[in-house]
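[job 0412] stage=complex_fold ligand=(R)-mevalonate status=START
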Amino acid sequence: MSKTIFGFSKRSKSEKIDWIVSTYLPNNKNAKSILLQYWNTDEKLQQLHDEFIENTITNYYLPLGIAPNFLINGITYTIPMAIEESSVVAAASKAAKFWLDRGGFKTEVISTIKIGQVHFKYFGNPETLKAYFTSIKQQLLKDAKPITANMEKRGGGILDIELRDKTIDIDGYYQLHASFETLDAMGANFINSCLEQFAKTFKNEALNFDAFSSDEKHIEIIMSILSNYVPECLVRAEVNCPVEALAENSKLSGSTFAKKFVEAVKIAEIEPYRAVTHNKGIMNGIDAVVLATGNDFRAVEAGVHAYAARHGSYSSLSHAEVKDGIFKFWLEIPLALGTVGGLTGLHPLVKLALEMLGKPNAKELMQIVAVAGLAQNFAALRSLTTTGIQEGHMKMHLMNILNQFEATNSEKQHLVERFKTETVTHSAVVEALEKLRH
Ligand code: MEV
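[job 0412] stage=complex_fold status=DONE, emitting structure tokens
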């Protein structure tokens, strides 16, 4: 039986389901009912989800949790987080509570510039190309006016366009490297539309530029696309307190804890194997809020990791120090986020998440997201340098093990109580469950 299909997107949803079930899941009697089980009973809401992407057959749920008690620049937030990993929301809440009693998080947006590029080939005299660019720059901006007018009314728009010579890397390769201010929009559509207009004008007007020879007039556009590398769309988040104040909830003295903590961060600064895991912990917090607020977590991931490698070797996104008796822990990350456009006005849960955060603008959301990352990193390093990560992690994972073995509510209650004082391991939980059942 053929497993390929043509014209699939034109089939109805139920035809698509029948096809996937009969072609790839013929031995699973429950396949269809599992898919249908996740449909929303509200038909309008289901249709909204169906239309987010092509070939929707059902919905994929992630838990939406909330982490309360985040004090950020004097304002208290409860942060929504969409994530499947059991310990993340608990860790965020714990870190939030810890810093609530120590002055909270301080944040600042450093810059909000986004980048897009038209990549093109030109094999003529570089000086003539420069002269052409100078002569055409105003026209590039003018032709993009229908796209930029609204953004400009609100104070954003195209900041600059530069011609960049990349012929040292690839023969004949140049760029129009443009910078943008997109305010509360993530700006991908805006930037890409501007770039495609630049490319059109740049290619067409070259035919009329007298200083070009007939060969030079033929500029080849390779592609026009925004960059998800946004090192100038930066936010900083910090916590600090006197070293002694760290002791309260730690098993170590404040100064021993601070010393170990700073060492742990230094290791992540110089050792890529550790830096990746260290930053993964930061992204646990960041992605969860990015997802809950309807933003593009793949774009954020790509940009953040590129930033972590900006000095030529992959390194920690966060830093820590003790100076004059003050412990300071901070991170600086690039975040291109939106609070208008995209899913933000469409997905009911995204709208609710943004409302929960007090309808932040993009700059405010950048700060909240950065804090979620710093809090997560703090919680992870605090566990790692004191009790070890598994204690808390396995406690949170207990419910997953119990669910895997289809424990009843009363079995769960019993075993959660029991493992409050015992070490959670997969085998210990299974053994205890079996004992209970017999
Ligand atoms: C697990 O999801 C994240 C950690 O590994 C992060 C870290 O090691 O810093 C705990």
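The chain has a mean pLDDT of 96.
[job 0412] exit 0
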